[in-house]
Specification:
5% of the residues lie in helices and 47% in strands. It is mostly beta strands. It has a five-stranded mixed β-sheet, with no helix packed on it. It has a four-stranded antiparallel β-sheet with strand order 11-10-9-35. It has a four-stranded antiparallel β-sheet with strand order 12-13-14-15.
C-alpha cells in the first residue's frame, strides 16, 4: 500500500506540473526521474573519495529517501568503505551526493567492479530514471615485487651450485641479486642455470647440470615446483624450452659420448611432469615456437651440426629438417619468416667454416635467402627489434634490416664483451661475464645513438636477459 506522504507528494507534484503547463493542448505532465552519475568509470584505489551524484529532473515538494544497493566483485569494508544504502534528497533540491571511500591496501589484486543501483525513491519505483545504475572499475596501484623489470639469469660456476637470478627494476635504479634464494629461503638451488621461459604467470628455469627445471611464479619468484632433478631420469643435459599447443618442449644434449641419444622432452604443464620424449639429431639447442610448430636449432652439443628440426606440436613428431650452416646458434621470427644465424665451426675444431644467416619460409620450411660471412667470422646472439636484426661478432654489434640483401660492413657498437644479449624497445641489453669468477654486469645501450646508458653489477656468469611484466624502458 502506498505511503500517505508519497501519495500526497505525487498528487502535489502532478498538480504543480499540470498548473505550470501552457495552454498548448499537446503539452502533457511528466513525473520527475532520479538517476546516478559519476565523473569517470575507472578509478585507482589510491584516488581517494569518489563523489556519486543522485540527480532528479524536477525538485520534490518534500524530503525524499533514495535507496540503492551495492554489488560487484569488489568487497565492501575491504576494497571500499561500507555504504549506508540510503540518502536523502532534500525538499526543493534537484541533486544530492554520496562519498565513496576507496581503501588503498598493500595487496596485489586484479581490477574489481563496484555497481551502484538505485532501487527505490521514497519507497517505490515510480521516480527511478533510466540512468539508475553505474559501474565503477577499481584498479590496483600495487604490483608484485618482480612484476615490471628485467630478470637476469646466471649460470654460476659449473659444479658449484651457485646459479642465481637478479632483478633490475624498470628504471634501472635498483638491482636485487639472488632473488630465488631470498624469496624461497634456500642457500643453494641449482648448478648451472641455462635458460628461462615464461608461460602465463609461470617462469621455467632450465638448470643444466642439476638435470631439472625449477618452476616459479614469475612475479613473486615463489617456488611452485621442480621437474626432474639429479637423481631423476627426466632430463639429460637440458638446454632451452619453448611452449606450444599447451605443452612445454625442452631440448636435451644427452650423453656427450653418445651422438644418438639427444631428445626433446615434452612437459605436461598442468602437473609439471615429463610425459614423453622426441628423439632428434645431435645437439638440439635453441628452440622456438610458431603456433603449433617448433623449430629446433642443432648447434651440435658436444660436436657440431648444421640443421634445424621442425616438430609438429600436435603429433610430437619431427616432420622435416632444414639444412643451414654449421652450428646454428640463434633464431628469430620476423613477419612469419624464420631467421637462423649459424656461427660456423670455430678454428679450434680444425675444420673452421664461415658463419651464415638464412631466411626460412615457414610455409614451405625451405631456405629462401642465404647471406654468408667470411670464413673467420663467427656471429652469434641474433636479436630482433621491429624489422631490424642485430647480432654480435668480434666484440661488436652489427645491425641490418630484414629487407637488406647484404650483410653490414661496419659495426654499430664496438669493444664489447657480451656473453648474451637481448633487444627491447630500441635498447640493447647485454651481459658481460667478466672473468667468470667474479660478478658480471648488465650493459644497456640506446640503439638510437648507440650510447651506453648504464652498467649495473649483477652476479656470477650472467647468461640471459628476460623482460618481465609490463617492462617498458
Amino acid at each position: 500500500m502506498m505511503k500517505k506522504s508519497r501519495f500526497f507528494m505525487i498528487t502535489a507534484m502532478a498538480g504543480l506540473l499540470f498548473t505550470s503547463c501552457s495552454d498548448d493542448d499537446n503539452d502533457t505532465p511528466f513525473a520527475p526521474g532520479v538517476g546516478i552519475s559519476v565523473s569517470g568509470d575507472t578509478f585507482s584505489e589510491a584516488e581517494g573519495p569518489i563523489t556519486l551524484t543522485f540527480t532528479s529532473t524536477e525538485a520534490f515538494g518534500t524530503d525524499v529517501v533514495l535507496t540503492y544497493e551495492v554489488t560487484g566483485s569488489a568487497t565492501s569494508g575491504e576494497d571500499f568503505g561500507a555504504l549506508p544504502g540510503t540518502l536523502t534528497l532534500a525538499t526543493g533540491e534537484t541533486s544530492t551526493t554520496l562519498e565513496l571511500t576507496l581503501n588503498d591496501d598493500d595487496e596485489v589484486e586484479s581490477s574489481e567492479a563496484i555497481i551502484i543501483t538505485l532501487t527505490a525513491v521514497d519507497g517505490g519505483t515510480d521516480f527511478i530514471g533510466s540512468a539508475n545504475s553505474l559501474t565503477l572499475t577499481l584498479t590496483d596501484n600495487d604490483s608484485f615485487p618482480f612484476e615490471n623489470g628485467i630478470l637476469v639469469l646466471h649460470e654460476g660456476n659449473f659444479g658449484a651450485g651457485n646459479a642465481s637470478v637478479s632483478f633490475v627494476n624498470d628504471d634501472l635504479s635498483l638491482v636485487q641479486n639472488g632473488i630465488f634464494k631470498e624469496v624461497n629461503e634456500v642457500d643453494a638451488w641449482g648448478d648451472t642455470a641455462q635458460s628461462m621461459t615464461f608461460n602465463g604467470d609461470m617462469a621455467y628455469i632450465v638448470v643444466n647440470n642439476s638435470q631439472k627445471i625449477e618452476v616459479v611464479d614469475r612475479y613473486t619468484f615463489e617456488s611452485v615446483g621442480t621437474i626432474g632433478g639429479p637423481d631423476e631420469t627426466d632430463f639429460l643435459n637440458p638446454r632451452y624450452m619453448a611452449v606450444a599447443n599447451g605443452k612445454g618442449y625442452v631440448t636435451n644434449w644427452g650423453d656427450g659420448s653418445n651422438p644418438d641419444d639427444d631428445f626433446v622432452a615434452v612437459l605436461n604443464l598442468d602437473n609439471n611432469t615429463v610425459e614423453s620424449t622426441i628423439a632428434v639429431a645431435e645437439g638440439p639447442e635453441r628452440i622456438l615456437a610458431k603456433d603449433d610448430v617448433l623449430y629446433v636449432a642443432h648447434q651440435g652439443g658436444f660436436g657440431q651440426n648444421n640443421i634445424v628440426s621442425v616438430i609438429d606440436a600436435v603429433t610430437n613428431a619431427v616432420t622435416t629438417t632444414i639444412t643451414v650452416a654449421d652450428r646454428p646458434n640463434s633464431m628469430q621470427l620476423v613477419n612469419d619468416e624464420l631467421w637462423v644465424l649459424s656461427g660456423g665451426n670455430p678454428a679450434w675444431t680444425g675444420n673452421e667454416t664461415a658463419g651464415q644467416l638464412d631466411k626460412v619460409n615457414t610455409t614451405s620450411n625451405t631456405v629462401e635467402t642465404t647471406l654468408t660471412f667470411a670464413q673467420t667470422e663467427h656471429p652469434g646472439f641474433l636479436s630482433q627489434d621491429d624489422d631490424n636484426l642485430y647480432y654480435y661478432m668480434s666484440s661488436s654489434i652489427f645491425s641490418m634490416g630484414v629487407t637488406d640483401t647484404a650483410l653490414p660492413t661496419a659495426a654499430d657498437i664496438t669493444d664489447l664483451n657480451f656473453y648474451d644479449m637481448s633487444i627491447n624497445e630500441g635498447k640493447l641489453f647485454g651481459v658481460d661475464a667478466k672473468n667468470f669468477l667474479s660478478n658480471g654486469s648488465l650493459e644497456v645501450y640506446d640503439l638510437g645513438d648507440n650510447s651506453l646508458l648504464t652498467s649495473e653489477e649483477v652476479s656470477i656468469i650472467p647468461t640471459g636477459v628476460y623482460f618481465n611484466g609490463d617492462f617498458d624502458f
